[in-house]
Amino acid sequence: MHTNKAGEGECFFHTGRPAVTRCKQCGKPLCSDCRLVTEDGLFCGDKCAQTAGVFVRRSHDLEEKRARRRRGIPAGLIRFIIFLIIIAVVYKLGRQLIDRGFLEKLLQMIKKPA
Ligand SMILES: [Zn+2]
Ligand SMILES: [Zn+2]
Predict the structure, then answer these.
(1) What are the two backbone dihedrals, phi and then psi, of residue 69, each rounded to the nearest 5 degrees?
(2) Structural domain of 11
């Protein structure tokens, strides 16, 4: 009596051999000879291991960047950005005041107090 269901219990590559695990990437059932053991898990072959390996590395990079952002930005960068904004606003206001002759008026007021 054959009770094997397709894709379950039987190695994807060997008909009749019992699967002991599944590919971490594509989920194919694998026997003990077909599984590829890596530090990231079990896979059916190099292609799946590479795909998963790249994904794992990318997610690690993202986590690192996120962690760095959490620690790094509040300390220095935000203060630096605020400093730049203040400089830009002061510069723009100063230019507008000079254009309107405000400084000349101010100097005249200082020279001749009403
Ligand atoms: Zn696979
Ligand atoms: Zn197999």
Answers:
(1) -60, -40
(2) 1-72
Judged against a pLDDT cut of 60, whether residue 114 lies above it is answered with no
8-state DSSP, 71? H
pTM: 0.43
Do residue 58 and residue 79 come from a single domain? no
Rounded to an integer, the average pLDDT of 52-69 is 69
Q: Which two tokens stand for residue 76?
A: 């220095």
Strand partners, 37: 42
CA of 111 to the centre of ligand 2 (A): 97
49 C-alpha to center of ligand 2: Å? 17
Residues 64 and 23 in one domain: yes
Instruction: Please give the distance, rounded to the nearest whole angstrom, from the Cα atom of residue 38 to the centre of ligand 1.
Output: 13
* Residue 89 token pair: 């606003």
Q: Which of 38, 55, 72 is the last residue of a domain?
A: 72
Q: How far is CA 18 from CA 31, 34, 59, 88, 104, in A?
A: 6, 11, 33, 71, 93
